[in-house]
Amino acid sequence: ISLPFGKASPPPSLNDSLEGDLRAFLIDEDQLHTYDDLTKVNPVTPTTVLKCLQARYRAQVFYTHAGCTLVALNPFQPIPDLYSLDVMREYHSAPQPQEAKPHIFIVAEEAYRNVQGQLEPVNQSLVVSGESGAGKTWTSRCLMKYYATVAASSSVLKSQDAVDRIEKRVLDSNPIMEAFGNACTLRNHNSSRFGKYIQLQLDRSHFLVGASVQTYLLEKTRVACQPANERNFHIFYQVRMMKGASSEQKKEWKMGHGQSFNWLPKAQKTLEEDCFQETVEAMSHLGIKSDKQAEIFRVFGLPPTSANVSPPWAAESLQGAAGLLGVPAEELQACLAVRTLVAGKQSILKPCSLSDCGVRRDCLAKVVYAHLFEWLTSFINRSICADNSAWCNFIGLLDVYGFECFQRNNLEQLCINYANEKLQQHFVAHYLRAQQEEYVSEGLEWSFVRYQDNQSCLDLIEGNPTGVFPLLNEESRLNRASDAGKFGARLQKELGDHGSISWDKFSQEPHFSVTHYAGPVSYQIQGMMEKNKDPVPPEIIALLQASANPLLGQVFGDQEADSTAPRGLSKVVTVVAKFKNSLESLMKILHSTTPHYTRCIKPNPDCKPLTFHKREVIMQLEACGIVETIHISAAGFPIRKRLLSRRAFSIQCCWRRHQLRRRRARGRAAVLIQAGKGAEEDAGLGPRLLSSVLDGSVKLHYQRSPLLYADMLPHLRREGVTGFNQILLEKTL
User: Fold this and answer.
1) What angle do CA 284, 285, 291 make, to 5 degrees?
2) Sequence-ordered list of residues with C-beta below 8 angstroms from that of 539, at least 6 positions apart, any chain
3) Active-site residue 404, yes or no?
4) Residue 220 labeled ligand binder
5) DSSP for 297-316, written as a single string
6) Which of 368, 396, 513, 522 is most solvent-facing, going by the fewest CB within 10 Å?
7) Which is catalytic among the residues 45, 137, 232, 308?
């Protein structure tokens, strides 16, 4: 083709080709909802992925595969029969669940079969992540119900009753934890204000025999300080409404319906979560008797009642709070109004200012609530946890607070977003980076797919000795009054050159902004050091230890040594230090298990049913690396199935024989077998090919072309067949 002036036509550019493919793909919009696996999308771009998810959401299809990840879009309304028992049984009995419609039950079943099918079962972890309001808590509920159903469906009649009891108790832990640990926020009506990792314990027959709950960083500041237009914890509103409680109970707990409390905003707003009777029934099923329940609710009535306790010390409010605590009103007033200063061997009593009285009152409410939450968690664990000898493997469910960015963010949001950064890094290390390195080691022609690595942000927050956390801990341990301005200046001095932190020069409040993987967040420094210190006056501990309430006496009976010890530089254990240690323990557990990822997506910021905002969704997809995940899966090994062929049986038998012969010489090894080579010769001679396979489980990967999926029977293939390139047998730790 010639152009004017004799110039040749330039060859089409790569961008022109991509735009052509994009137009060709999007031209048939009626078929976009049929893409149940985004690795089938061609080309893979943010636009094509977004269009497919929008089409599926419009068709009320809320789950979609994205390589190793399941994408779950929150419908914000009940969907009939989507999680019924019949659906659970359908996925549990399916020969190949991956070939069924995408569903959260596919992820659950894959993890369950991994425990069942491996010669040496490996513990599994289901990581549910997403923004606040994306549906993580609901997804965790569905997963627990699935395992409580399929792991309890035993044909052994003599054990059926015991299994039924334990699976009922495991499920009953959910409404209790949500009542005492969740709250209504601007972004979510049932927002988890703590993180939890639930281990579902399985015996050698893979039946559910117990569970344990590990909690992380309860947002106890919400007890005494609720952000604008948000509510306190659900339990306060449940007890206040108390539709199932008698008039005597309401009077005893000082929570009559007609009363108003400063710490219970939005009390007129009724939610589905305000179900007091459901909480009471769950507590009864877990073995918390009615008299103990009365003690619990009496104590949990303290925070809203004590909100009205302040100088000039109204007698009615003071008597009410003292009655709930089980202490004389005079002692409660003295505890809040007078502090004890120790100078050598002498003790000096000093009256507190009006603001100090308020701080001590808030501290009393927070420390009571936090300790009782820990006691309740321990009671639940004692009720549902099996003996170590009764279980051998577990499936873990991780449900943590989602990424948060409010108008005002402080230490709570910094810790929450730090936890999400760690989980994102776990995903990056386990899949986005490790999978590509695996492909290269297997000899594939591979060009690395770029992805957002958040290691720089983690170095900023936790890096030693000049990260935000170490500097904050150092400032908190100094025996001096906190100064937000000085701490902000030190952050600028130490971290001014770091690319993930910035400051607004026109802001009048001390602050710093962190560029997280999900977007920038500005944190207010004022109050951050005090929250990190989390000091509890010894007078408060002494008051609670002297309480006539049996429950408080039990909870605070062993606190004396820690509370009365001198608080020198090395004695202060900060909130950040405790949270970081617990998070490191969690990451060790996750690294020791086989992870399964579910990305919950919030389709719109207002939680409106079946409303899809493109900008809201695309920001979440880009932040968590969904498009990069699809790229890597589609170009590498997107299809990973269980071995079902005759060769598979030979491999398993060979592995067992080799394990018996070489038990003392275990190590790590992998063998690459070219598909179709000598199929007739080695169909029954697996040992010749697998001489170096050692300890671990067998996992089969096979690569496909964009148009042809791999065959399930590799020994029937011949050399050069498009769509089946190679098989990898690898050790799974």
Assistant:
1) 20
2) 334, 335, 338, 339, 340, 360
3) yes
4) no
5) HHHHTHHHHHTT--TTT-HH
6) 513
7) 137
Q: Is 132 known to be catalytic?
A: yes
Written as one string, the DSSP assignment of 641-699 is: ----SHHHHHHHHHHHHHHHHTGGG-----EEEETTTTHHHHTT-HHHH-TT--SS---
State yes or no: 445 annotated in a binding site: no
Note if the bond before 43 is cis, omega within 30 degrees. Answer: yes
Q: What is the 3-state secondary structure (H, E, C) of 448-476?
A: CCCCCCCHHHHHHHHCCCCCHHHHHHHHH
For residues 141-164, give the mean pLDDT.
69
Residue 131 labelled as part of a binding site: yes
| Distance, first Cα to last Cα, the chain | 59
* Residues facing residue 361 across a β-bridge: none
Instruction: Please say if 192 is a catalytic residue.
Output: yes
Question: For the residues of 144-194, what is the DSSP string, one character each?
Answer: HHHHHHHTT--S-HHHHHHHHHHHHHHHHHHHHHHHHHEE--SS-TTEESS
- Active-site option among 69, 114, 129, 191: 191
Catalytic residue among 67, 396, 402, 636: 402
β partners of residue 129 = 599
Residue 514: alpha-carbon gap to chain centroid: 21
From residue 219, alpha-carbon distances to 55, 183, 513 in Å are 38, 10, 21
Lowest mean pLDDT among 246-255, 435-444, 518-527: 246-255
Distance of alpha carbon 44 from alpha carbon 95, whole angstroms: 30
CA distance 176 to 188: 18
Q: Which of 114, 123, 132, 279 is catalytic?
A: 132
pTM of this structure: 0.80
Residues 125, 174, 192, 279: which is the catalytic one?
192
* Cα separation, 257 vs 273, whole angstroms: 17
What H or E segment, with its residue span, contains residue 295? helix 290-300
Per the annotation, does 340 bind a ligand?
no
Is 466 annotated for ligand binding? no
For residue range 354-396, list pLDDT tens digits in order: 888 889 999 999 999 999 999 999 999 999 999 999 999 999 9
The answer to whether 139 is annotated as binding is no
Q: How does pLDDT run across 58-81, given as a tens digit for each residue?
A: 999 999 999 889 999 999 999 989
137 annotated to a ligand binding site: yes
Residues in Cβ contact with 625 at an 8 Å cutoff, skipping those fewer than 6 apart: 424, 427, 428, 432, 451, 452
Average pLDDT of the chain, as a whole number: 79
Query: Binding site annotation covers 513?
Result: no
pLDDT of residue 571: 61
The one-letter amino acid code at 453 reads: D
Which tokens belong to 535?
């000091």
DSSP assignment string, 598-650: EEEE-S-TT--TT---HHHHHHHHHHHTHHHHHHHHHHS--B-----SHHHHH
| pLDDT for the residue 489 | 93
Structure-token pair, residue 444 = 């594939």
Residue 315, pLDDT > 80, answer no
* DSSP H/E element including 65: strand 63-66
- Residues 6+ away with beta carbon under 8 Å from 675: 702, 714, 717, 719, 721, 724, 725, 726, 727
Q: What is the largest CA-CA distance in the chain?
A: 103
DSSP state for residue 8 in the 8-state scheme: B
Sequential DSSP letters for 323-340: HHHTS-HHHHHHHHHEEE
What is the band of 341 on the pLDDT scale with cuts at 50, 70, 90? confident
Which residue out of 67, 133, 181, 396 is catalytically annotated?
Answer: 133
Q: How far is CA 351 from CA 111, 246, 334, 622, in A?
A: 60, 41, 9, 55
